[in-house]
């Protein structure tokens, strides 16, 4: 397992290759957004712009923002018909309001939840739509538990990078920031990881980097191998790893300020 060295954990090649399921599963969320021609749409945490481009294909004027320079560079080179800005979603201040905000698999990476929800509300016109999906309560619970246990046994503290709320936790948070929740759904989505035997280690390298911040590089492979041994009886099936994903999806409307 190779540690990242440039401060930007995101690898566009891996994201669009071995982990393309992130965008593929997000296509279903577009039906909740249902973008209309000439609408202004903001895609928060756009990654490499795959879903941003699909929103634009429906005739909307869409801007994608992401904090990763590598992802934004790939988005710009791959989708020249869309606009992309490297920006912190907690501080984004557009020149004019949007009709809708869309976000897939990004919000759970943001620790300052109140700040990002306030920023999104301020970016929307009154009556504008906010449609998003993020990891829900107990998302990747088995993977996380196995990894945290192995790290503790070796004397390392696990720095969990995600925020996975329940509907009961997140709906009041949305309401506190000026949204009316119109629909919310929590559901299991077991997700097959690509590349067979290497699927889990590749997943941990891209999505679990922060767990290994205090771990010397020469110990990482042994930790990953131990986690694989622990999870193999439950999450390795027919030659592939299955991540125990659980998702929270919602649609909300911005109320009058």
TrEMBL record:
Annotated ranges, domain Methyltransferase: 41-128
InterPro entries for this protein: Methyltransf_25, SAM-dependent_MTases_sf
The UniProt record lists the keyword rRNA-binding: no
Gene Ontology terms: biological process: methylation
Pfam families: Methyltransf_25 (PF13649)
Entry annotated with the keyword Methyltransferase: yes
CDD domains, per database record: AdoMet_MTases (cd02440)
Keywords carried by this UniProt record: Methyltransferase, Transferase
Gene Ontology terms for molecular function: methyltransferase activity
Alphabetical list of Gene3D superfamilies matching this protein: Vaccinia Virus protein VP39
PANTHER family in the record: TRANS-ACONITATE 2-METHYLTRANSFERASE, TRANS-ACONITATE 2-METHYLTRANSFERASE-RELATED
Protein name: Methyltransferase type 11
